[in-house]
Design brief:
Number of strands: 10
Distance between the termini: 38 Å
Radius of gyration: 21 Å
Helix content: 25-40%
Order of helices and strands: HEEEEEEEEHHEHEH
Structural class: alpha/beta
Strand content: 25-35%
Largest sheet: 7 strands, mixed
Shape: elongated
Oligomer: single chain
């Protein structure tokens, strides 16, 4: 059972299918955000729904919330149903205790409670190119195709960006390292649905335009640096 659950977690982390909004297969996991560092992986039929997605400073005077699931994954081990996660009502993790010591008012869920996933390398601005470039063609051919075929109407690009972020949310991702060559993702990131760490990419091989490229990318950096989000 433990090995099967670990395989399920690996499947979720690598799964690239579109976000599911309606009923799915009994064997296809559903994920709902609980708060920035934990997600609930549901393995029953039904609609995916989001829970709390909050991150505030801890306050000793706040009341507590208690969460119990079929399994609790701490990031290093799977705990059984007797483990209860304790947080403040702002979502700050306090501790994990035994169910017999947790008292009443425990929120119970059918699934796996897990730390949220992190997408360490993302090109959100290229979401509209998904599936357009053949696999296993080599890095050089891949890069040239990206450079030459990335130009789509802006409306299509923005729509693909929004759908890609929605898929990440549905997959239990809570933070993203995103590679940026332009500012087309700014509008979506201002909604603060995810915590983004933006990497401004500068590339080229013509010394005559190096300064121009650098100044343009510096402008991108300054624009992302103004985001009023985790960035």
């Amino acid at each position: 059972m433990k090995q099967a659950i670990l395989q399920l977690l690996g499947w979720v982390a690598s799964h690239n299918s579109a976000a599911t909004r309606g009923p799915v297969s009994l064997f296809e996991p559903q994920i709902a955000l609980l708060f920035p560092f934990f997600v609930l992986i549901r393995v029953i039929c039904g609609k995916t729904h989001r829970l709390k997605y909050i991150c505030h400073q801890s306050d000793p005077h706040l009341s507590y919330q208690k969460f119990q699931a079929t399994q609790l994954f701490t990031g290093t081990e799977l705990l059984g149903q007797d483990a209860v996660l304790i947080t403040t009502d702002k979502g700050i993790v306090e501790e994990i205790i035994d169910a017999k010591d947790a008292g009443e008012d425990i929120r119970q869920y059918n699934g796996i409670l897990s730390p949220g996933f992190i997408n360490c390398h993302c090109h959100l601005e290229l979401s509209h190119m998904r599936g357009l470039i053949p696999e296993q063609t080599g890095l050089v051919d891949f890069v040239f195709k990206v450079v030459n075929e990335r130009h789509f109407p802006e409306e299509e690009i923005l729509d693909a960006i929004a759908r890609a972020e929605d898929e990440m949310l549905t997959s239990g991702i809570v933070a993203v390292g995103d590679i940026c060559n332009n500012t087309l993702t700014l509008q979506q990131k201002q909604k603060q649905n995810l915590a983004y760490y933006n990497f401004i990419e500068v590339s080229g091989w013509m010394p005559s335009v190096a300064q121009l490229r650098f100044e343009r990318s510096l402008g991108f950096y300054n624009a992302f640096n103004q985001l009023q989000t985790p960035n």
